Amino acid sequence: MSANEDQEMELEALRSIYEGDESFRELSSVSFQYRIGENAEYSSQVTGSSRS
């Protein structure tokens, strides 16, 4: 499986996990935000790895 196929599968899984969760935002296909706490602001955190 190529790196692009792996990334697409990971993206599909992520969307499936957080589907309907109002605390989750997908800003782009590589950028996401999740609100933690009841009155918390959205906070950005970078996770994952860079593939060439």
Automatic annotation (TrEMBL):
**Gene3D superfamilies this protein is in?**
Ubiquitin Conjugating Enzyme (3.10.110.10)
Q: Matching InterPro entries, A to Z?
A: RWD_dom, RWDD4, UBQ-conjugating_enzyme/RWD
Q: Which Pfam families match?
A: RWD
**Residue ranges occupied by any RWD domain in the UniProt entry:** 5-41
Q: Which residues cross the membrane?
A: none
**Protein name in the entry:** RWD domain-containing protein
Originating organism: Pan paniscus (Pygmy chimpanzee)
